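Researcher: Next entry in the queue.
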Amino acid sequence: MTQDGPNIHETIERNIAMELVRVTEAAAMSAARYMGRGDKNLVDQEAVTAMRYVLGHVAMDGIVVIGEGEKDEAPMLYIGERIGDGSAPCVDIAVDPIDGTTLCARGLPGAISAVALSERGSMHFPAHFFYMDKIVTGPEARDYIDINAPVAMNLKAIAAAKRRKVAELTVVVLDRPRHEKLLAQIRSAGARVKLISDGDVAAAIEATLPDKEVDALMGIGGTPEAVLSAAAIRCLDGAIQCKAWPRDESERKAAEADGVDVDRVYRTEDLVSGNEIFFAATGVSSGVLLKGVRYFPGGAQTNSVAMRNRSGTIRWIDAWHNFSRLDKLGDYDTH
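Model: Structure for this entry, 335 residues:
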């Protein structure tokens, strides 16, 4: 592991997840004003601008590992961008200013703003692949899943670990034509299905938490979302397994030409290997995981979650924001 400065263990006794909540709150409040207007680019830009501003004031020397794309594609929060005030600790950062941009733009439930942070060199992005095949579950079944095993076998293993019948399990799957075969296999095994149109970071967290209606996530989704999900899953002591899903033969051949093992199974620690991991998310539009932004005269209410893997602490945070006072604290309108 390369190290550009003081190790995170030497410099951090504060819980950065609490500071990251301020980041996701700002992004959520900025984006939520445009919920339902049908302009997903505007929703994303407002979230990115607010998130970049607040992250820039966090005491850290951060590098964006999962971001809005390469520098020539994204003016802010691009992969490789240095962010923070430049002080210790040295960290990797994964951002998804809006997980579920289309959801917010269309006024649908389940959009969130999310940020993850870990010690420098500990986030690993399989950048050769736009999509990955994933399976996610919580602590009880984390040691019993195998992405190479048949769907029915994985469901039986999860059910046994959770002391339930397969018919009592619920599997969340992105509603895409590519999942027609997967859905048939889940249904044939006897499990219940919850289809979502977007937002597989929130769905992965929901599948890991013990008190939610979802027991597992299966199917093909974005590679950046897999890494961001892995950070939260490390905090929740669950498990994610992923395999590359090349979109076409040219993507497969390009990866193989660079010496990448297309058949490699990436486990949770392969995606985020650090010992200090922080994750925060705030609801934009109300969903199962988090309530969305609610405005009232002169302010807004937000609902967030903050996690730290080393302590295992999960905090659910309801916050009331007074806009007139917030406006006096900085030179940027984060709402």
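Model: The first strand starts at residue 61 and ends at 66.
Researcher: Noted, moving on.
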